[in-house]
Amino acid sequence: MNNKTLFHKWWLWLLVILTVLFIIIGILTSQYFTPWLQHELESRVKDESNGLYTLKLHGLDSSLLSGRISADSVQLVPNFEAWDKRQDISQQDTSATKAPRTLIDLKTNKLVLAGINFIGVLRGNPLDLSKLQVIQPTILITEMRQDTTESHEPLHDAVDGIMKQLRIGAMEVEEATLRIRERQDAETDRISLEKLTISIKDFRLDSTAFQDKERAYYARQITLESGQAAFALPDGTYKLEATALKANTEDGTLNIGNLKLIPLLDNAALARLKGRAVSTMRLEVPEINVSGVDYKVHSQYNNLVADKVVLRNPSLSAYMDRKNFSPKGDKPLPHDIIQQLKTGLTLQKVEVQGMHIRYEELAEEATEKGIITFENLSATISNVTNDKNRMSAKSPAVVDAKASVYGKAPVALTIRLNLLDPDGFHTLQGTAGPADLAVLNPILEPTAFISLKEGSLQKSDFKIDLYRNKASGNLNVRYQNFKVDVLTKDEDKRQSLGKKILSKVANKVVIKSDNPEEGEQLRAGDIAVVRAKKRSVFNYWKDCLVSGFRTAAGVEGIGADLRDPNR
Q: What gap in Å lies between CA 398 and CA 339, rounded to an integer?
């Protein structure tokens, strides 16, 4: 027998032996190891959770040689009765282990874990997977009690056992459904996501990965896409909906499709709940695109940082009933909102494109609603931040906006706000016109009981300094043939005899019908306003413009006293 023939025979026998070994290992795995593994996993979950969870594995398959585990379906079922018992015990005995704040109900279709080092796991080494794939999981998270902690420890410090220093090379979650509710008997979900797909690369659950500036949420890259998404405010007054979400931690993008803010109560019910007059708002934004999102900063410090936010064609409508409900409490300035944030915020630039705004109000003595609209509003807002290193009097937030009131009266405005100024200082500077003054009657007649009978505005410019409690400035306005009707508050009459006489006297004697009048200089309108803190910042700005126009037109005595803070 020559060497070549002998060599071939040895290779043949080696292949036969290896094949037999593989077959034996496969038989042993399917007959003994897989059933043992299933029993071990199901028992360990029940024991280590102290009866809070039951794990059910269906169609479990495993391979010792390839380090692979798969299941046709997986169920993790919480035991709410066991949770109640543990909660009762922990309340009676403070040394007892507290019941967890949340319970998770999980159901999946296909589950695959690949690249498992079974020997390493048995030796107590961290779980290291090359791949984790979950197909069509349904996850229901029930918040069993309120979260009262102000800050949470990082996830890598919170986990223990086999999850400590977990590593996953690639993770794929496909077509998931996620629901979060506040109680077991909750009728609606607080958060829901449908058709959620997540792809994660190089996930490492340890302190080094947490602090790594090249990672976000312990991973080298996370991409997320979802279909319908919803979030209900904790007080049950509004919910947010979107038809699509998309995020990518590597390129720093976030895209939201068809975002809606929907009130869950009508205005009367909302006002009764709050105990005061409130605005009911509806918002629709067909498209929101955010770029330069620093997910790494958010994952470490919970700060919100982005370079640019673009809102395309948003629509906002609001309604307030001041007749049947009274305003109470002080309304915040933009400074207050920013300063009260519990997390860091830095938005370098926000663009609003093609916005429509509609505001309706039922005044204290009105019989019908006043309406004002702003069409085709475009705005650029820069340096929105509560970072003291970025915000100052020299580098304020700046709003540049243009719109058309009722689609007929052009307005341009620049607002500068030092958002960290404790006195709420900001400035308004802008222009308005040309326009027919009568376009303002839909808001003036039902709320101020004044009708602009005639008059044309050629142009107006203004500059105002505003503080938390008062504002001053000047308004230059060029107009012609300005005449008003003072209206009665009686719903059956537009004008009583007394109001007709008052209107004639005002138009003939008091009101300066032209500015400038023939042969005279332009009359400047001085602005002097004390802020009515029960009203919004928009009302504050409106009062300043009214103050300047009254002075220029010589009608300071008509309407509310703008120096009365209780008006």
A: 17
Kindly state whether residue 328 falls inside one of the protein's structural domains: no
Return the SS3 of 190.
coil
Q: Which residues, in sequence order, are CB contacts of 135 under 8 Å at separation 6+?
A: 108, 109, 110, 111, 174, 175
- Whole-prediction pTM value? 0.87
383-434: pLDDT as tens digits: 999 999 999 999 999 999 999 999 999 999 999 999 999 999 999 999 999 9
Reduced to 3 states, what is the DSSP secondary structure of residue 157? Answer: helix
- Of the CA atoms within 13 Å of residue 139, those in its CB half-sphere come to 21
The number of folded domains in the chain is 1
Tell me the HSE value of 358 on the side-chain side, using a 13 A CA sphere. Answer: 7
Q: Amino acid letter at 10?
A: W
Contact 472, 464 (CB under 8 A): yes
Q: How far apart are the first and last CA of the chain?
A: 115
CB 430 within 8 A of CB 411: yes
Structural contact between residues 343 and 304, judged by C-beta atoms closer than 8 angstroms: yes
CB count, 10 Å around CB of 560?
11
- The pLDDT assigned to 177 comes to 98
Tell me the two tokens of residue 137.
Answer: 């999981």
Is position 456 within any domain? no
Percent of the chain with pLDDT over 70: 89
Q: Do residues 419 and 391 make contact, with C-beta atoms less than 8 angstroms apart?
A: yes
- Provide the token pair at 92: 């009676």
Q: Tell me how far apart the alpha carbons of residues 351 and 552 are, in angstroms, rounded to a whole number.
A: 35
pLDDT higher than threshold 90 for residue 258: yes
Alpha-carbon gap, residue 215 to 226, rounded angstroms? 22
Is the pLDDT reported for residue 32 higher than 70?
A: no
Element (H, E) at 371: strand 370-385
Tell me the per-residue pLDDT of 467-512, one tens digit each, with 9 for 90 and over.
Answer: 999 999 999 999 898 887 765 555 544 444 444 444 443 444 346 7
Taking alpha carbons only, the member of 169, 171, 162 closest to residue 132 is 171
| DSSP per residue, 83-117 | HHHHHHHHHH-TTSPPPPSEEEEEEES-EEEES--
Report helix, strand or coil for 212: coil
Residue 216 structural domain: 43-147+158-227
469 within some domain = no
Q: What is the mean pLDDT of residues 153-176?
A: 89
| DSSP type of residue 163 | G
What does the pLDDT read at residue 421? 98
CA 546/CA 447 separation, integer angstroms: 14
Residue 57 one-letter amino acid: L
> And the tokens for 56?
């059910």
- What count of other Cβ atoms lies within 10 Å of the Cβ of residue 449? 18
Q: Does residue 70 belong to any structural domain of this protein?
A: yes
Q: Is 342 helix (H, G, I), strand (E, B) or coil?
A: coil
